Amino acid sequence: VLESAPKVPGRPRHKTREVAVGDKVFGGANPVWVQSMTTTDTFDVEGTVEQIKKLEEAGCELVRVTVPKPEDAGALGEIRKRIGIPLICDIHFDYKMALAALDHPIDKIRINPGNIGGYDRFRQVVRKAKAKGIPMRVGVNAGSLEKELVEKYGFPCPPAIVESALRSIEVAESEGYDQIVVSLKSSDVLVAVESYRLFAQLADYPTHIGITEAGKPPYAVTKSSAGLAPILLDGIGDTIRISLLGDPVPEIAAAFDILQATQRRVRRPELIACPTCGRLAIDLEKIIAELEQRLEGRRLPVKISVLGCVVNGPGEAREADIGIAAGNGKGMIFRNGEIVRRVDEAEIVDALMEEVARWEIENADR
Ligand code: SF4
């Protein structure tokens, strides 16, 4: 078993077709895009644009707004004009609102097939989306699954959720429309994970991943990570949203952290630090705080290990791109597994930053 096990961890990305949403292409080898949703009344153009700008500043790459009323649809054109990221409309219950939203310059529409009132209505929305060239998310949600499927399977289990998505896809395809992204959300982590895995076995449409109604941070972030990490590690997921109660801005950092930790989208240095214990030989907390501050804004995926003593320090430092192993108020600096210098504790941060600068020059085209 050991000899046949893969030495290099990580499953390849699930192969999906590509669907363009504004200037972002979902699926294929494209990045797993980070998106969020506003909490404002969409018809309040000023408030909505203000919140979207804050999301953009935080790194949000696509934004969704709710469109429950005609005045919300009427605000879409103005909002779209004033923001720099693709605009997605979220529709529940009223297919007429979907038809109204499609009259405006939106980049994608999200439909919940379980609450739109049947496939005839869904078909009308598909026809209009096709005519306008606008992609659609088929957003299945365990909490609002078609009654017939709940009865067939007994409860909103993964096969019921996936069958809902496949049925909608079939209807859309029968209309010659395939600009589809799929989500299979549940507030139950196990149901969500198995739904995405099952869907990936049966279809090659890109997926929007998320754990719905995760609640209030910090538990909501942990719960989302528990659900999204297995999905991402299986190579599934083409766009991600972390659903947090309240202000959506913290959703963005949480999404990028999950993508970084699962190595699906590494966008900044990875800092490896030990938790410290009674063997600690340097002021590790101070060093890490200073390093975090000085690494802020750097984009290269360098792995930096800073450990507090010689127990695991040299081993971790050798495995990282840059590392330090501390002992007796001094630090041994490693680069690419080799010891390059020894410095006093007070010089550790400067020495590490010099090595980071060197590493960036050597790896500029990575
Ligand atoms: Fe403790 Fe050393 Fe391990 Fe850090 S590396 S937790 S100081 S034993």
Automatic annotation (TrEMBL):
- Record bears the keyword Nucleotide-binding: no
Domain IspG TIM-barrel residues, every copy: 16-255
Q: Per UniProt, where does [4Fe-4S] cluster bind?
A: 274, 277, 309, 316
The catalytic activity, as recorded, is: (2E)-4-hydroxy-3-methylbut-2-enyl diphosphate + oxidized [flavodoxin] + H2O + 2 H(+) = 2-C-methyl-D-erythritol 2,4-cyclic diphosphate + reduced [flavodoxin]
Q: List, separated by semicolons, the cofactors it needs.
A: [4Fe-4S] cluster
Q: How is the cofactor bound?
A: Binds 1 [4Fe-4S] cluster.
Q: Which GO terms label this protein's molecular function in UniProt? A: 4 iron, 4 sulfur cluster binding; 4-hydroxy-3-methylbut-2-en-1-yl diphosphate synthase activity (ferredoxin); 4-hydroxy-3-methylbut-2-enyl-diphosphate synthase activity (flavodoxin); iron ion binding
Query: Locate the IspG C-terminal domain: which residues?
Result: 270-357
One GO biological process term is: terpenoid biosynthetic process
Q: Which InterPro entries match?
A: Dihydropteroate_synth-like_sf, IspG_bac, IspG_bac-typ, IspG_C, IspG_TIM, NO2/SO3_Rdtase_4Fe4S_sf
Pathway(s) of this molecule = Isoprenoid biosynthesis; isopentenyl diphosphate biosynthesis via DXP pathway; isopentenyl diphosphate from 1-deoxy-D-xylulose 5-phosphate: step 5/6
Q: Cite the EC number.
A: 1.17.7.3
Question: What are the alphabetically sorted keywords of the record?
Answer: 4Fe-4S, Iron, Iron-sulfur, Isoprene biosynthesis, Metal-binding, Oxidoreductase
Q: Its family?
A: Belongs to the IspG family.
NCBIfam families linked to this entry: ispG_gcpE, PRK00366.1
Q: What does the UniProt record say this protein does?
A: Converts 2C-methyl-D-erythritol 2,4-cyclodiphosphate (ME-2,4cPP) into 1-hydroxy-2-methyl-2-(E)-butenyl 4-diphosphate.
Its recorded name reads: 4-hydroxy-3-methylbut-2-en-1-yl diphosphate synthase (flavodoxin)
What is the native source organism of this protein? Fimbriiglobus ruber
